[in-house]
Amino acid sequence: MTGRHVAIAAAVFALIAVPYAITEAYYVNVASQILLYAIFALGLNVLVGYAGLVSLGHAGLFGVASYVVAYLLAADHGHAVAILASLVIGLVATAGFAALSLRATGISFIMITLALGEIIWGLAYRWISLTNGDNGISVTTRPAPFGLSLATASGFYYTTLIIFLFAIAATAIFVGSPLGAALCGTRDQPRRMNALGYHVWMVRFLAFMFSGLLTSLAGILFVYYNQFISPQTLALTASAEVLLMVISGGAGTLLGPVVGAALVVIVKNVVSGVRLTGLSGAVLVVIVRNVVNGLFEHWNFLLGAIFVAIVVLMPEGLVPGAVRLTRSAWRAANRQKTAAPSVAGPKQ
Amino acid sequence: MTALAVSGLNKTFGGLRVTTNVNLKVDPGERRLIIGPNGAGKTTLFNLITGEIAPDSGSVLLFDRDITRMPSRRRTHLGMARTYQIITLFARDTILHNVRLAMLGLSPLRWNPLIALNRQRDLTVQCRNALKRVGLEHIAERPLAQTSYGERRRVEIAMALAQNPKVLLLDEPFAGLSIDERQDVRKLLRAIPRDVTIVMIEHDMDTALELADRITLLHFGEVIVEGTRAEVVADPRTREVYLGE
User: Fold this and answer.
1) Which residues in chain A are contacts of B163 at CB distance < 8 A?
2) Which chain B residues touch A193 with a CB distance below 8 Å?
3) CATH T-level topology, domain B1-79+165-245
4) Residue A206 and residue B163: Cβ atoms within 8 Å?
5) Where are the domains of chain B?
6) Chain B within 8 Å of A177 (Cβ-Cβ)?
7) Residues of B with CB under 8 A from a CB of A
8) Which residues in chain A are closer than 8 Å to B105, comparing Cβ atoms?
């Protein structure tokens, strides 16, 4: 138990130290992006991992929160009003999403969420008087709560970090709570849970609302981070991307979505800009260099290749997969240790 | 007062009549055995009683209260508990957690998203007591995936007992058990106090016969014979159904 506390404290300390360790604003911004997508992925993971309900429309909910902030700021409202209204409307939209999609499970649930996400995307694209259509809405200022200006890279990073820590702590508490246990029960044996006295629909609805809260928080951070919102943010590819974060990192684990978010954001932002240079000489080296550079340039392809590799090698996701591999390596090492003396002893 | 009263119950799946005008009256504290060959509609009758499927017509009364249109979960809160013929447990979790979910289902605590479930000591103690009754307390922390079939059958029963039911529906509690395990389960069922009414389905008549006060014989969805143990065993129609004479 104490070992765990030390690990958590070390992780939090490391996260706090990030802007000091990497002073370059660009990389601090990448760290902010990782954390904000981690919040989004944590929100989706509540449904995908713990409720066993795969949503392909979460970018729609994310976008609703973003658009509300952008719209209200463009209409000269203050940040506090914009953020509060965004949370409220985000939760109302989530309730509507949940009420419609929870009529089904499995493939039907996926299809309903996909359709709802597309409807919201269509509204963002076509309801030009409200959303400015394809041109999107710009946000000119970032808030400065309690004197902490979010205009700087580190100021924004710390705000995102606080919300991220809230999101992951809230998820951890929820998962360990009776309601969280009930949710996992409805994932594994919904019929049994009903017979045991649980209101399966309501348990799932409440989980959906929690998921929507985290998604809305991420959406608000996103619009302040980019200072711009357009229908692209709500597209199906965005929903698929965050779902891939959850699945590649490990659905139904606390750290999986965070690792998945880091993977996608890093490949997208960092690797795509890196080029191997200076390697020359043997033909083979040059070929390798060119292939690697080609992969880096076409990051979509690289990301796809990484996802395929994860699905083949660790179908349960990076975090549970790594745990499994470490355990089996540990066991193999122990077996060798215990097997060694018996070689000298008599055979039984 | 009757503990459980079923009257005029009908259910068809497409063109197949699985329950035809079934009437059943079970007194409080009674041990009722429902027998019948494969496909007689025994499990369907249970699903109709617990509300997992809705009847086409007829009514179900629990302690004189009409529950025909009530969702399963509310019947559970009124004191009905069941086990499943096909074991329906939470395979990822420990035995203790399985029983804990059963107990939590009736507690208002189940809506709480803020407290740590495994620190609810009262709940854990109650779960361990329920496991003690079925003789599984020593392996409470074992993951369900590492338990034997016989142990899982007993977890099923422990979960039902943990809910402290007034009416307990057991769907083939002896299915797939060895002779020794059957003895254990029989002893366990005999120890259930008489304030619990038990309705038990059993495919194999000999196994459960001695536990029953009254027996209902179901065949092609209909009640063929009903009576005391001796009456049903002596009835020629019983022999006909079972031996095909």
Assistant:
1) 196-197
2) 101, 105
3) Rossmann fold (3.40.50)
4) no
5) 1-79+165-245, 88-163
6) yes
7) 50, 52, 71-73, 76-77, 82, 84, 88-92, 97, 100-102, 104-107, 109-118, 120, 159, 163
8) 193, 196-198
Which amino acid is present at A109? F
- Distance (Å) from the C-alpha of residue B65 to the closest C-alpha of chain A? 18
State the nearest Cα–Cα gap between B38 and chain A, in angstroms.
23
| A107 burial via Cβ count (<10 Å: 0-12, 13-18, 19+) | exposed
Instruction: Give CA separation, A283 vs A42, A274, A279, A287, B205, in Å.
Output: 46, 21, 10, 6, 81
Residues B224 and B41 sit within 8 Å (Cβ to Cβ)? no
Query: Model pTM?
Result: 0.91
| Domain range summary for chain A, segments of one domain joined by + | 2-235
The better pLDDT of the pair A293, B54 is held by: B54
Residue A282 has pLDDT above 90, yes or no: no
Q: What pLDDT is stored for residue B39 in this prediction? A: 84
Q: Report, as an integer, the average pLDDT of A63-75.
A: 95
Type of residue found at A182: A
Q: Does A210 touch chain B (CB under 8 A)?
A: yes
The model's pLDDT over A112-139, given as tens digits with 9 standing for 90+, comes to 999 999 999 999 999 988 898 888 998 8
Cβ atoms of A170 and B27 closer than 8 Å: no
DSSP for A204-271, written as a single string: HHHHHHHHHHHHHHHHHHHHHHHSEE-GGGGSHHHHHHHHHHHHHH-TTSSSHHHHHHHHHHHHHHTG
Does B97 sit within 8 Å of A178, measured CB to CB?
no
Say if the Cβ atoms of B110 and A179 lie within 8 Å: yes
A4 at B interface, C-beta within 8 A = no
Average pLDDT over residues A308-324: 91
Strands B167-171 and B80-82: parallel
- Distance (Å, rounded) from C-alpha B148 to C-alpha B175? 13
Query: A82-98 pLDDT, tens per residue?
Result: 999 999 999 999 999 99
Flag whether pLDDT at A342 surpasses 60.
no
Distance CA A202, CA B111 (A): 10
Q: What's the complex ipTM?
A: 0.91
A88's tokens: 């409220």
Residue B99: closest C-alpha in chain A = A196
Specify the range with the lowest mean pLDDT, choosing from A289-293, A335-339, B64-68.
A335-339
A196 part of contact set with chain B, CB < 8 Å: yes
C-beta atoms of A196 and B159 within 8 A: yes
User: pLDDT exceeding 90 applies to what percent of chain A?
Assistant: 68
Q: Is the pLDDT of residue A344 over 50?
A: no
Mean pLDDT of chain A: 90
Q: Best residue in A173, A192, A199, A202 to probe B by mutation, most B CBs within 10 Å?
A: A192
**What is the mean predicted confidence (pLDDT) over A54-62?**
96
